[in-house]
Amino acid sequence: MIYEHTAAIRPPRALWVPFELGRPLGVPNDPAFQKRVLTAALNLLAEMSGPILAEYSESAPSYPDSEESWVCPINIGAQKPDTEQADILSRVLGEISDLSPWLELGRERRGRSVFGVSQLNIQDCTRFLASLLTSRNPESRAPNASLGESLKRTSEDLFAWYTEAAAAQPGALLPTSRALENWYWNETAAGRLILDLARSQFDHPDPLVRRVIERNLIPWTQMHKL
Amino acid sequence: MIVRVGDLADDGLAQWVMGVPLPEFDSTPWVEPPPLRSLRLAIVTTAGLHRRDDTAFNVGEGSYRVLPGDISAQDLLMSHISVNFDRSGFQEDANLVFPIDHLRAMTKEGSIGSLANFHYSFMGASDPEEMAAPARQIAGLLKNDQVDAVLLTPV
Question: A172-176, B38-42, B95-99, B110-114: which range is least confident on average?
Fold first, then answer.
């Protein structure tokens, strides 16, 4: 996955690509571009000696204005400090209600959804996460999951739900990954909920909960908010 | 498919990446496979993919999930523990990470010989030592499936 690691490990055949992490074939919804990358990788199988660390030179198409021009389909107001943590739950549920039409539109367009790792519906995901603000051991966990596993899976589902809805605006440029990330963590009550949860439970007695909060809940680029 | 440390958006992440201990191998195995048009190919990904009804990956887990050869993109979820890579691309288009539709098309047009009966996914943010035994198991399964080559798609 990382050039320097690959150079050190020396697998038989590897293709370096100039794409962001999470996008090994470059660009969503661009099959021609993806096939060019795929073909370049598969063509390495014809090489007669190795190890090979080849470099793919074609950059992904860039849309320099997309981050600035992208707007969330609904107007989610700037975060306001809440005096009572219960307000966070109401705000997130309100955002979910407002975003639901866009979520359905997006699912219809894509024909699929990546929501569901927790096996809870979005409202129960939210209630579980909100309950962790004030309880060390909430009962409403994900099925067949420990507290730490539930925390990870429900937070994943919350992010997936929001970003699927936000990226559903028809006819518009898809938001960049950074635009979506910044929107979620800066402008939504859901992002605020997760940040508050991390602050309140960083010293949780469950080691997996602490591990998830420390490393697997909030991206590096947003950790400064804690 | 891989990126450079210098391309990572965050210095903290870049520093962490460069500090990751790497496995050591005595040699690089080398095989000359059949021509692509005769070759049987499998996908192995470390993207933490699984079927909707499968158990999600957990922190530190070294085991894999089976992705049947006839799997539909609609049935794919991602439960990778890292939050430091883009998920929105996969949300939008599963082939960005798991190019099964492209490979099916290439097989149909004769560019690739055939696709494996099963593909596999690990969750890459685990200790390689935890993945070693499952990986050897998959190697045996791939041999039984007469697979000639593996396309590895990391995230």
Answer: A172-176
What's the CA gap between A220 and B83, in Å, rounded?
A: 8
Helix (H) or strand (E) holding B115: strand B114-115
Q: Which residues contact B27 (CB under 8 A, 6 or more apart)?
A: none
CB–CB of A70/A173 below 8 Å? Answer: yes
The shortest CB-CB distance from B149 to any of A45, A208, A218 is to A45
B10-28, pLDDT tens digit by residue? 677 677 777 777 877 888 8
pLDDT value at residue B108: 98
Q: Which phi-psi region, left, alpha or beta, contains residue A119 (left: φ > 0; alpha: ψ -120 to 50)?
A: left
Give the phi and the psi of residue B61 in degrees, each rounded to 5: -75, 130
Residues of B in contact with A174 (CB under 8 A): 88, 92
Pairing of strands B118-121, B65-68: antiparallel
Report how many Cβ contacts below 8 Å link chain A to chain B.
205
- pLDDT confidence of residue A35: 97
Please choose, from the candidates A200, A125, A197, A195, the residue with its C-alpha nearest in 3D space to the C-alpha of residue A162. A125
Q: What are phi and psi of A36, to 5 degrees?
A: -65, -45
- Which run of H or E residues covers position A170? none
Say whether A6 and B12 touch across the interface (CB within 8 A): no
**Domain boundaries defined on chain A:** 3-55, 68-225
Give this prediction's pTM: 0.92
What angle is formed at CA B106 by the lines to CA B108 and CA A177, rounded to 5 degrees? 135
Q: Which residues of A fall within a CB distance of 8 Å from B124? A: 1
CB within 8 A of A201, min separation 6: which ones?
A132, A133, A136, A209, A213
Question: Cβ B89–A217 below 8 Å, yes or no?
Answer: no
Mean pLDDT of chain A: 89
B-contacting residues of A 96-125, CB under 8 Å?
A: 110-112, 114, 116-118
Interface check for A217 against chain B (CB to CB < 8 A): the answer is yes
Phi/psi at B81 (5° precision): -80, -20
- Residue B102: pLDDT band (50, 70, 90) is very high
